[in-house]
Write a structure and sequence with these properties.
The protein is α+β, with helices and mostly antiparallel strands and about 725 residues long. Among the domains are: about 150 residues, Immunoglobulin-like (Sandwich), CATH 2.60.40.10; about 120 residues, Golgi alpha-mannosidase II (Immunoglobulin-like), CATH 2.60.40.1180. It is built from 16 helices and 34 strands. It has an eight-stranded parallel barrel. A hairpin with a 4-residue loop joins strand 2 and strand 3. Helix 10 packs across helix 11. The longest helix has 19 residues. It is elongated and about 90 Å long. The N terminus is likely disordered.
């Protein structure tokens, strides 16, 4: 089919809008978005290729368009105007005029109502309809056609807000990375079944700030909640058609507005109240953010915002600009190489820090954010922007360092100041405890904060964000209960989701009442949690893993906004409560033992001055591991001796010279482990034995020579003076 003649957008066919007389002034090109200054509202919208921008105002229900006002000024590619009679609460959107030339990368269509990229609040929900698309679905020439239907009835609307909020004494907590323990959770799923949360508040920020919810998280000992995407997002049409919806939220359409369904009330200050409650409990708030793509998809996707405002600027386009570069696997890629788009992302981040008081961010598919047209660049515009920014450089920045684009796997290659999700830790620890052969050497590296990846350029051990389970994949319980994924509820015949789970069901696929299997599963969960919390680096726990939450074997529950994904508080039994108490104790031990939080990587080098090594790797005979033992595929038990005396004298702190021994046994059978000799007047005491989870906060009796290490278990010993023995 021949390419048709380029189409220039005809006038919108929605000109029969009631015209109330609005006073309009030139206004200012900055700040972008809708800004209430106490006297009126300034509107500013970037578009380099538009020919006209119309501000559309709606009634308080968002149903009827009551006015359409052409923004009168254009400065530095920003369209702007000021309405002295406008007030907070006003609902609005934009219609943007310009060429409809898909072959040249332009997709302007003023018949489509567009969301303001800087909108601070979005009301209503998107209703999937052919009118949302800039082209006519089913037309012979596809996305080269032009659709003249008005999309406003199907679109949510932007709302002007009054940002005023009384923060009182609230400040960012700035908890040191070395003491940070992250708790990944979902705003909605965490409280939908919580018995202490009123029905009308469940699944919202208001529900999450309830005392019983915050108390559980605080008492567990974690220092930061990492909330799955909270920016306004869209339920994918193919999910809606199947009676599902986007639960995880990785389908953003607004970088400044919270997702409407996460607000119990009508004002965004609800989010601020939630942050204030967490801060009051000593807990930081980290947002999982998606700046790599939007909900508009590829050339066949809807026109909701960026595509209709300035498609050629906001997205990375292919050499044939009709098409999109798709490094995200979602249809499009946000163009952070463009100055104004980079500005928008930086403005968004600063907004959430300065206005909403969040403490950091976890960046979805962060490799994309650091990719320039020529490839991944650790010194690219986005990373440089964060590093030099006086606000952003002081908050926690966590990268998911991979994507599906070229050179997408970049673990360990982000710039100093960044932390990174470490999937190598996840996979190695899972494989070791499953009993896979040949994992000892890699396991020792992961216990040591993965120096092969992060020990460079002055980076610290905390740069490795260690995790066993996350939202994407099996929960901790499912990891030890299923050999295979069970994603049938997603409606894709179990073809979706990751098949490389490194899981083991220990004899029965799924739930069982067999007491031996249940006991082994809970011990394995304790092993995994102990490994996580006694490793160098920053530990991240998946919410609910502390009481054995299950997703019924679903390892890709992105569309399950139901009991599969929601935390089942009412299902917590005695065994699960015991796991919670054990997790709480592990965290307390980690926070009390400086050796787990040291700011330097372990080297294993001998310090001649004091005659010790910072770490010594031991075999069960209590002697130093040999190269042959490291490569022995049948070896599954070893010890990690941490000698606190090896820390340089100038940076020692009280308690930092404690000597610890961590023993891991992935054999099925008991191993007799010989404990190293200790100085006179001291002895070894056992702090943790995952086969004896009921050990209380006091150390157990002293050990001088050997300890019978149960199959599939972790032990932690400490050298203490004789007088400290508890009888």
């Amino acid at each position: 089919m021949d390419t048709p003649t380029e189409i220039v957008s005809p006038p919108a066919k929605t000109d029969s809008v009631p015209r109330r007389s609005w006073r309009v002034q030139e206004g200012m090109p900055y700040p972008l978005g809708a800004t209430w200054d106490g006297l009126g509202v300034n509107f500013a919208l970037f578009s380099a290729h538009a020919t006209k921008v119309e501000l559309c105002l709606f009634d308080r229900y968002g149903k009827s368009e009551v006015a359409r006002i052409e923004l009168p000024e254009y400065t530095d590619e920003v369209w702007h105007g000021y309405l002295p009679d406008a007030r907070p609460g006003m609902l609005y959107g934009y219609r943007v005029h310009g060429p409809y030339e898909p072959a040249a990368g332009h997709r302007f269509n003023p018949n489509k109502l567009l969301l303001d990229p800087y909108a601070k609040q979005i009301l209503g929900k998107l209703t999937w309809d052919p009118a949302l698309f800039g082209y006519t679905i089913g037309a012979e020439d596809g996305d080269l056609s032009f659709d003249a239907r008005d999309s406003a009835p199907c679109m949510p609307k932007c709302r002007v807000i009054d940002p005023a909020f009384t923060w009182g004494h609230d400040r960012r907590l700035q908890i040191p990375w070395e003491r940070t323990i992250v708790y990944e959770m979902h705003v909605r799923g965490y409280t939908m079944r919580h018995p202490a949360v009123p029905q009308g508040l469940r699944g919202t920020c208001a529900g999450l700030m309830q005392k019983e919810v915050v108390d559980h998280i605080r008492d567990l000992g974690v220092t930061a909640v990492e909330l799955l995407p909270l920016h306004a997002y869209v339920d994918d049409s193919y999910l809606v058609d199947r009676g599902l919806r986007n639960y995880w939220g990785y389908n953003t359409i607004g970088f400044f507005a919270p997702q409407p369904r996460y607000l119990a009330g009508t004002v965004v200050n609800e989010f601020k109240e939630m942050v204030a409650h967490f801060h009051d409990a000593g807990i930081e708030v980290i947002l999982d953010v998606v700046y790599n793509h939007t909900a508009e998809g590829n050339e066949l996707g809807p026109t909701l915002s960026f595509k209709g405002i300035d498609n050629a600027s906001y997205y990375r386009l292919a050499p044939d600009p009709r098409y999109y570069i798709n490094d995200t696997g979602t249809g499009n890629t946000v163009n952070l190489s463009h100055q104004r788009v980079l500005q928008m992302v930086a403005d968004s981040l600063r907004y959430w820090v300065q206005e909403m008081h969040v403490d950091g961010f976890r960046f979805d598919l962060a490799t994309i954010l650091a990719r320039e047209p020529y490839g991944f660049d650790e010194g690219g515009g986005f990373l440089d922007s964060c590093r030099q920014d006086p606000i952003l450089s002081q908050v926690k920045l966590i990268a998911e360092p991979w994507d599906c684009g070229p050179g997408g796997y970049q673990v360990g290659r982000f710039s100093p100041g960044w932390a990174e999700w470490n999937d190598r830790f996840r996979d190695t620890v899972r494989a070791f405890w499953r009993g896979d052969p040949g994992t000892l050497g890699d396991m020792a590296t992961r216990l040591s904060a993965s120096p092969d990846l992060f020990d460079k350029r002055g980076r610290k051990p905390w740069a490795s964000v260690n995790f066993i389970a996350a939202h994407d994949g099996f929960t901790l319980n499912d990891l030890v209960s299923f050999d295979e994924k069970h994603n049938e509820a997603n409606g894709e015949e179990n073809r979706d989701g990751h098949a490389h789970n490194l899981s083991h069901n220990h004899g029965v696929e799924g739930p069982t009442d067999d007491p031996q299997i249940r006991a082994l599963r809970f011990r394995q969960m304790r092993n995994l949690l102990a490994t996580l919390l006694f490793s160098r680096g920053t530990p991240m726990i998946l919410a609910g893993d502390e009481f054995a939450r299950t997703q019924r074997g679903n390892n890709n529950a992105y569309a399950q906004d139901n009991d599969i994904s929601w935390v089942q508080w009412e299902a917590v039994d005695e065994d699960a409560r015991g796991l919670t108490a054990f997790t709480r104790r592990l965290i307390a031990i980690r926070q009390s033992q400086p050796m787990f939080r040291r700011g330097r990587f372990l080297t294993g080098a001998y310090n001649e001055e004091i005659g010790v090594k910072d770490v010594t790797w031991l075999d069960p005979a209590g002697t130093e591991m040999t190269q042959e033992q490291w490569t022995d595929g049948n070896a599954r038990c070893f010890g990690m001796l941490l000698d606190g005396r090896a820390q340089p004298t100038g940076i020692r702190r009280k308690g930092s010279d404690r000597t610890l021994l961590l023993v891991l046994n992935a054999h099925d059978d008991v191993v007799r482990f010989r404990l190293p000799e200790v100085p006179g007047g001291t002895h070894w005491e056992c702090l943790v034995d995952t086969n004896r989870p009921d050990i209380d906060d006091r150390p157990s009796h002293a050990f001088e020579s050997e300890y019978e290490v149960t199959g599939r278990s972790v032990l932690l010993f400490e050298v203490v003076p004789e007088r400290a023995t508890v009888r």
